[in-house]
Amino acid sequence: MEKLERLFEPIRINKLEIKNRVAYAPTGKAHFTKDGYMTDQAICYYVARAKGGTGLIIVEVCLAIEKYARPVRRILGCWDDAQLGGLKDLADAVHMAGAKIIVQETLGFGSQAMFPAEGEVVAPSDVPSGIRPGTAPRNLQYMEGFMGIPPRPLTRPEIEEMEEAFVAGAERIQKAGFDGIEIHGCHGYLIAEFLSPYSNRRQDEYGGSFEGRMRLARNLLQKTRAKVGPDFVLGFRISGDEHIAEGYTLEDGQRIARELERAGADYIHLSSGRYEAWNHMLPDREGSMLDEAKAIKQAVQI
Protein backbone atom coordinates (compact mmCIF):
# COMPACT_ATOMS: atom_id res chain seq x y z
CA MET A 1 0.00 0.00 0.00
CA GLU A 2 2.95 2.38 0.45
CA LYS A 3 3.20 2.79 -3.32
CA LEU A 4 -0.44 3.92 -3.43
CA GLU A 5 -0.27 6.50 -0.64
CA ARG A 6 -0.06 9.46 -3.04
CA LEU A 7 -3.15 8.22 -4.84
CA PHE A 8 -5.21 9.38 -1.89
CA GLU A 9 -3.47 12.71 -1.37
CA PRO A 10 -5.20 15.93 -2.49
CA ILE A 11 -4.18 17.51 -5.77
CA ARG A 12 -4.77 20.94 -7.28
CA ILE A 13 -5.45 21.76 -10.93
CA ASN A 14 -5.42 25.51 -11.54
CA LYS A 15 -7.33 26.63 -8.43
CA LEU A 16 -9.49 23.52 -8.21
CA GLU A 17 -8.81 21.47 -5.07
CA ILE A 18 -9.49 17.74 -5.57
CA LYS A 19 -9.63 15.48 -2.51
CA ASN A 20 -7.59 12.66 -4.04
CA ARG A 21 -5.94 11.60 -7.29
CA VAL A 22 -8.61 9.10 -8.30
CA ALA A 23 -10.14 10.34 -11.55
CA TYR A 24 -12.91 8.77 -13.58
CA ALA A 25 -12.04 9.00 -17.28
CA PRO A 26 -14.80 9.75 -19.82
CA THR A 27 -16.40 6.65 -21.32
CA GLY A 28 -19.41 6.60 -23.64
CA LYS A 29 -22.48 4.99 -22.08
CA ALA A 30 -25.39 6.37 -24.15
CA HIS A 31 -27.37 7.34 -21.05
CA PHE A 32 -28.76 10.55 -22.56
CA THR A 33 -31.74 11.32 -24.78
CA LYS A 34 -31.51 11.16 -28.57
CA ASP A 35 -31.51 14.96 -28.73
CA GLY A 36 -28.69 15.43 -26.22
CA TYR A 37 -30.50 16.03 -22.94
CA MET A 38 -29.68 14.80 -19.44
CA THR A 39 -31.47 11.82 -17.88
CA ASP A 40 -31.95 10.52 -14.34
CA GLN A 41 -30.05 7.39 -15.37
CA ALA A 42 -26.95 9.43 -16.24
CA ILE A 43 -27.12 11.43 -13.01
CA CYS A 44 -27.49 8.29 -10.89
CA TYR A 45 -24.55 6.66 -12.66
CA TYR A 46 -22.16 9.53 -11.95
CA VAL A 47 -23.41 10.12 -8.41
CA ALA A 48 -22.66 6.46 -7.61
CA ARG A 49 -19.04 6.98 -8.72
CA ALA A 50 -18.78 10.13 -6.63
CA LYS A 51 -20.16 8.38 -3.55
CA GLY A 52 -17.60 5.62 -4.08
CA GLY A 53 -14.79 8.08 -3.36
CA THR A 54 -13.75 9.31 -6.80
CA GLY A 55 -12.09 12.72 -6.50
CA LEU A 56 -12.64 13.92 -10.06
CA ILE A 57 -15.25 12.81 -12.57
CA ILE A 58 -14.87 13.63 -16.25
CA VAL A 59 -18.23 13.36 -17.98
CA GLU A 60 -18.22 11.61 -21.33
CA VAL A 61 -18.10 13.46 -24.62
CA CYS A 62 -20.49 16.43 -24.94
CA LEU A 63 -21.24 17.91 -28.36
CA ALA A 64 -21.01 21.67 -28.84
CA ILE A 65 -22.49 21.69 -32.35
CA GLU A 66 -25.42 19.64 -33.61
CA LYS A 67 -25.35 19.96 -37.39
CA TYR A 68 -22.77 17.32 -38.39
CA ALA A 69 -22.57 13.53 -38.14
CA ARG A 70 -22.76 11.84 -34.79
CA PRO A 71 -23.43 8.24 -33.79
CA VAL A 72 -27.07 7.30 -33.43
CA ARG A 73 -26.39 6.37 -29.81
CA ARG A 74 -27.44 8.90 -27.20
CA ILE A 75 -24.79 11.63 -26.89
CA LEU A 76 -24.88 14.52 -24.41
CA GLY A 77 -25.08 18.02 -25.87
CA CYS A 78 -24.25 21.60 -24.83
CA TRP A 79 -25.29 23.35 -28.05
CA ASP A 80 -28.56 24.79 -26.70
CA ASP A 81 -29.52 26.86 -23.66
CA ALA A 82 -32.42 24.45 -23.15
CA GLN A 83 -29.86 21.80 -22.11
CA LEU A 84 -28.66 23.91 -19.18
CA GLY A 85 -31.19 22.62 -16.65
CA GLY A 86 -30.16 19.00 -16.99
CA LEU A 87 -26.47 19.87 -16.99
CA LYS A 88 -26.93 21.83 -13.77
CA ASP A 89 -28.76 18.90 -12.16
CA LEU A 90 -25.76 16.65 -12.86
CA ALA A 91 -23.18 19.15 -11.59
CA ASP A 92 -25.14 19.82 -8.40
CA ALA A 93 -25.73 16.13 -7.68
CA VAL A 94 -22.09 15.13 -8.08
CA HIS A 95 -20.90 18.05 -5.97
CA MET A 96 -23.32 17.03 -3.22
CA ALA A 97 -21.85 13.52 -3.39
CA GLY A 98 -18.37 14.90 -2.70
CA ALA A 99 -16.58 14.94 -6.06
CA LYS A 100 -15.45 17.57 -8.54
CA ILE A 101 -16.78 17.28 -12.07
CA ILE A 102 -15.53 18.29 -15.51
CA VAL A 103 -17.20 17.81 -18.90
CA GLN A 104 -15.33 16.51 -21.93
CA GLU A 105 -16.41 18.79 -24.79
CA THR A 106 -16.07 18.05 -28.49
CA LEU A 107 -16.87 19.44 -31.92
CA GLY A 108 -17.80 16.06 -33.31
CA PHE A 109 -16.53 12.75 -34.53
CA GLY A 110 -15.01 13.66 -37.89
CA SER A 111 -14.21 10.71 -40.11
CA GLN A 112 -14.54 8.46 -37.05
CA ALA A 113 -18.31 8.75 -37.49
CA MET A 114 -17.91 5.60 -39.60
CA PHE A 115 -20.26 3.58 -37.45
CA PRO A 116 -24.04 4.09 -37.92
CA ALA A 117 -24.40 7.85 -37.78
CA GLU A 118 -26.83 10.65 -38.49
CA GLY A 119 -25.75 13.75 -40.40
CA GLU A 120 -22.99 14.72 -42.78
CA VAL A 121 -19.49 13.35 -42.13
CA VAL A 122 -16.96 16.21 -42.16
CA ALA A 123 -13.25 16.40 -41.33
CA PRO A 124 -10.15 18.50 -42.08
CA SER A 125 -9.56 16.51 -45.30
CA ASP A 126 -11.27 13.78 -47.32
CA VAL A 127 -9.40 10.94 -45.60
CA PRO A 128 -11.65 8.07 -44.45
CA SER A 129 -11.08 6.15 -41.25
CA GLY A 130 -10.97 2.41 -40.84
CA ILE A 131 -9.95 -0.47 -38.61
CA ARG A 132 -6.69 -1.79 -40.02
CA PRO A 133 -5.99 -5.56 -40.15
CA GLY A 134 -4.29 -6.85 -37.03
CA THR A 135 -5.19 -3.86 -34.86
CA ALA A 136 -8.54 -4.82 -33.34
CA PRO A 137 -8.48 -5.48 -29.58
CA ARG A 138 -9.31 -8.90 -28.20
CA ASN A 139 -12.89 -10.01 -28.98
CA LEU A 140 -13.37 -7.20 -31.53
CA GLN A 141 -11.62 -8.84 -34.48
CA TYR A 142 -14.88 -8.89 -36.41
CA MET A 143 -14.42 -5.13 -36.93
CA GLU A 144 -11.10 -5.46 -38.77
CA GLY A 145 -11.21 -4.06 -42.28
CA PHE A 146 -14.24 -1.87 -41.57
CA MET A 147 -13.93 1.40 -43.51
CA GLY A 148 -15.88 4.62 -43.27
CA ILE A 149 -16.91 6.91 -46.09
CA PRO A 150 -14.61 9.75 -47.23
CA PRO A 151 -15.61 12.86 -45.26
CA ARG A 152 -16.24 16.26 -46.79
CA PRO A 153 -13.43 18.72 -45.98
CA LEU A 154 -14.60 21.61 -43.82
CA THR A 155 -14.44 25.14 -45.18
CA ARG A 156 -12.70 27.88 -43.24
CA PRO A 157 -16.04 29.61 -42.34
CA GLU A 158 -17.34 26.27 -41.04
CA ILE A 159 -14.25 25.83 -38.85
CA GLU A 160 -14.64 29.35 -37.49
CA GLU A 161 -18.32 28.62 -36.78
CA MET A 162 -17.23 25.51 -34.89
CA GLU A 163 -14.80 27.52 -32.77
CA GLU A 164 -17.55 29.92 -31.75
CA ALA A 165 -19.93 27.03 -31.01
CA PHE A 166 -17.29 25.40 -28.82
CA VAL A 167 -16.80 28.56 -26.77
CA ALA A 168 -20.57 28.94 -26.37
CA GLY A 169 -20.80 25.33 -25.21
CA ALA A 170 -18.03 25.89 -22.66
CA GLU A 171 -19.86 28.94 -21.33
CA ARG A 172 -23.00 26.84 -20.86
CA ILE A 173 -21.02 24.16 -19.02
CA GLN A 174 -19.54 26.81 -16.73
CA LYS A 175 -22.95 28.40 -16.17
CA ALA A 176 -24.35 24.99 -15.21
CA GLY A 177 -21.85 24.82 -12.33
CA PHE A 178 -19.20 22.40 -13.56
CA ASP A 179 -15.58 22.82 -12.48
CA GLY A 180 -14.08 22.82 -15.96
CA ILE A 181 -14.00 21.28 -19.40
CA GLU A 182 -11.71 18.82 -21.12
CA ILE A 183 -11.21 19.26 -24.87
CA HIS A 184 -11.53 15.91 -26.65
CA GLY A 185 -8.42 15.88 -28.85
CA CYS A 186 -7.53 12.19 -29.05
CA HIS A 187 -8.36 8.92 -30.87
CA GLY A 188 -8.62 10.52 -34.29
CA TYR A 189 -11.90 12.32 -33.65
CA LEU A 190 -12.48 15.71 -35.28
CA ILE A 191 -10.25 17.94 -33.14
CA ALA A 192 -7.55 15.25 -33.10
CA GLU A 193 -7.76 14.95 -36.88
CA PHE A 194 -6.60 18.54 -37.21
CA LEU A 195 -3.49 17.65 -35.15
CA SER A 196 -2.56 14.66 -37.31
CA PRO A 197 -0.53 14.76 -40.55
CA TYR A 198 -2.37 11.58 -41.55
CA SER A 199 -5.86 13.07 -41.51
CA ASN A 200 -5.06 16.78 -41.98
CA ARG A 201 -3.78 17.39 -45.50
CA ARG A 202 -5.04 20.93 -45.80
CA GLN A 203 -2.90 23.63 -47.36
CA ASP A 204 -4.55 26.61 -45.68
CA GLU A 205 -3.88 28.14 -42.25
CA TYR A 206 -5.51 25.14 -40.52
CA GLY A 207 -3.02 22.66 -41.99
CA GLY A 208 0.10 22.35 -44.10
CA SER A 209 2.56 22.55 -41.19
CA PHE A 210 2.78 21.74 -37.50
CA GLU A 211 1.73 25.29 -36.66
CA GLY A 212 -1.23 25.05 -39.02
CA ARG A 213 -2.35 21.71 -37.60
CA MET A 214 -2.19 23.20 -34.08
CA ARG A 215 -4.33 26.21 -35.00
CA LEU A 216 -7.75 24.77 -34.13
CA ALA A 217 -6.60 23.39 -30.76
CA ARG A 218 -4.84 26.64 -29.89
CA ASN A 219 -7.86 28.72 -30.89
CA LEU A 220 -10.21 26.58 -28.82
CA LEU A 221 -8.06 26.98 -25.71
CA GLN A 222 -7.39 30.69 -26.11
CA LYS A 223 -10.91 31.72 -27.16
CA THR A 224 -12.47 29.63 -24.40
CA ARG A 225 -10.11 31.02 -21.76
CA ALA A 226 -11.02 34.55 -22.82
CA LYS A 227 -14.69 33.80 -22.09
CA VAL A 228 -14.58 31.60 -18.98
CA GLY A 229 -11.84 33.45 -17.10
CA PRO A 230 -8.56 32.32 -15.50
CA ASP A 231 -9.91 29.99 -12.79
CA PHE A 232 -12.13 27.63 -14.80
CA VAL A 233 -10.21 24.41 -15.50
CA LEU A 234 -9.32 23.76 -19.15
CA GLY A 235 -7.87 20.34 -19.89
CA PHE A 236 -6.96 18.67 -23.16
CA ARG A 237 -6.95 14.95 -23.94
CA ILE A 238 -4.49 13.74 -26.57
CA SER A 239 -3.11 10.51 -27.91
CA GLY A 240 0.57 10.58 -27.03
CA ASP A 241 1.42 8.59 -30.15
CA GLU A 242 -0.94 7.72 -33.01
CA HIS A 243 0.94 4.48 -33.71
CA ILE A 244 0.53 4.60 -37.48
CA ALA A 245 3.34 5.36 -39.92
CA GLU A 246 1.52 8.32 -41.45
CA GLY A 247 0.46 9.84 -38.12
CA TYR A 248 2.31 11.72 -35.41
CA THR A 249 4.90 10.08 -33.16
CA LEU A 250 5.52 10.30 -29.41
CA GLU A 251 8.08 13.02 -30.06
CA ASP A 252 5.38 14.93 -31.93
CA GLY A 253 3.01 14.26 -29.04
CA GLN A 254 5.48 15.92 -26.67
CA ARG A 255 5.63 18.93 -28.96
CA ILE A 256 1.83 19.08 -29.13
CA ALA A 257 1.62 18.93 -25.33
CA ARG A 258 4.08 21.82 -24.96
CA GLU A 259 2.04 23.93 -27.38
CA LEU A 260 -1.17 23.13 -25.50
CA GLU A 261 0.48 24.21 -22.26
CA ARG A 262 1.56 27.49 -23.86
CA ALA A 263 -1.99 28.01 -25.14
CA GLY A 264 -3.39 27.77 -21.62
CA ALA A 265 -4.20 24.13 -20.88
CA ASP A 266 -4.26 23.36 -17.14
CA TYR A 267 -3.68 19.65 -17.62
CA ILE A 268 -3.02 17.01 -20.28
CA HIS A 269 -5.06 13.79 -20.18
CA LEU A 270 -3.14 11.09 -22.01
CA SER A 271 -4.49 8.32 -24.19
CA SER A 272 -2.99 6.51 -27.17
CA GLY A 273 -3.66 5.54 -30.77
CA ARG A 274 -6.65 6.06 -33.05
CA TYR A 275 -9.06 3.70 -34.80
CA GLU A 276 -6.42 2.78 -37.36
CA ALA A 277 -4.43 1.50 -34.37
CA TRP A 278 -7.41 0.47 -32.28
CA ASN A 279 -5.43 -1.92 -30.08
CA HIS A 280 -3.62 1.10 -28.59
CA MET A 281 -6.93 2.80 -27.74
CA LEU A 282 -8.32 -0.37 -26.14
CA PRO A 283 -5.21 -2.29 -25.04
CA ASP A 284 -5.34 -5.92 -23.99
CA ARG A 285 -2.65 -5.47 -21.32
CA GLU A 286 -2.40 -3.25 -18.26
CA GLY A 287 -0.05 -0.29 -18.08
CA SER A 288 0.35 -0.02 -21.85
CA MET A 289 0.39 3.80 -21.80
CA LEU A 290 2.85 4.33 -18.94
CA ASP A 291 5.86 5.05 -21.16
CA GLU A 292 3.88 7.57 -23.20
CA ALA A 293 2.55 9.20 -20.04
CA LYS A 294 6.07 9.54 -18.65
CA ALA A 295 7.34 11.10 -21.89
CA ILE A 296 4.49 13.61 -22.07
CA LYS A 297 4.88 14.51 -18.39
CA GLN A 298 8.58 15.20 -18.93
CA ALA A 299 7.71 17.59 -21.77
CA VAL A 300 5.45 19.92 -19.76
CA GLN A 301 5.21 21.68 -16.40
CA ILE A 302 1.49 21.11 -15.83
Automatic annotation (TrEMBL):
UniProt keyword NAD, yes or no: no
CDD domains: OYE_like_FMN_family
Protein name per its UniProtKB record: NADH:flavin oxidoreductase
Cofactor: FMN
Pfam families per the UniProt record, alphabetical: Oxidored_FMN
SUPFAM superfamilies, per the entry: FMN-linked oxidoreductases (SSF51395)
InterPro entries found in the cross-reference section: Aldolase_TIM (IPR013785), OxRdtase_FMN_N (IPR001155), YqjM-like (IPR044152)
UniProt keyword annotations, A-Z: Flavoprotein, FMN, NADP, Oxidoreductase
NADH:flavin oxidoreductase/NADH oxidase N-terminal domain sequence ranges: 7-279
GO molecular function: FMN binding; NADP binding; NADPH dehydrogenase activity
